[in-house]
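Pilot study result, target chain (115 residues):
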Amino acid sequence: MAWQLCVEQCDVIVAITENGRAASDQEFREQIRRAAKKAPALIAEGFLRYTPAEFVRYLRMARGEIGEVQNHLEFGRRQRYFTPEQIQQATTISNRAMAATSKLLKSKLPKVKCG
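Predicted structure:
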């Protein structure tokens, strides 16, 4: 579910940065897209490494990328890069992706040995 929501987040980010003011700021567009693309890739890579410790490490990185997307969305909102509808859609899916990834991370933490 976390991976699916991150993929959906990526799709939304690509769609809302295709045109308009967000598309004209190429640096912003590339940064938010890069962060959105990394989150599902990190979850997939961590899962395929098989060990709980590595999976946790990659889930933490995925959460960081989702957080970066959320930061860029706030910047884009303040700069009026997006319509209110686009912000609502992107924020909703980003919050869902963060919640699912955080929940998955918490479920894996007890399996990781400390020290």
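One observation from the pilot: The chain has a mean pLDDT of 95. A full batch analysis is planned for the follow-on phase.
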